[in-house]
Each structure stands twice: as structure tokens, then as C-alpha cells.
Write a structure and sequence with these properties.
mainly alpha; about 0% strand
Length: about 70
Amino acid sequence: MTQLQQVLIDRYGKEGAVSKQDSMTLLSVGMGAKEFGFEREILDYLEQHPSATLKELDAFAAPFFPEIVEED
């Protein structure tokens, strides 16, 4: 488990059951940040925004993901 993944669990997963959408967001940000190399940016954001909601975190993270291009 990465430092970011632990921070996400500590911050957003300890309040009890999370919705399916929230679970998907946590999974996406937690794994995507590692895969696409933006863990430091997410950790910095969380440090600077200690009361950020999961929705706000998701909005912040969105531009870091590569655009999906469908080929015919």
C-alpha cells in the first residue's frame, strides 16, 4: 500500500461504509495516481486542503488522468 492509498483510507474510509461511487473514486485516485505518476500532487493537495470532500478531490485529480481515445 502506498502512502497516498493509506492517507485516502484514513481520511475517507474510516467513517464507515462508503457508497459505490465513493469506492470507485477512492480506487481510481489511489491507483491512478501511482500508475500515472501524480501521487505527490494529490498528497500536497490533501495536505493543503484538509477538509476537502471526496468529490473535490476527484475534481482536482481529473486533469491528471490521460485522455481516453477510442480508435475505430
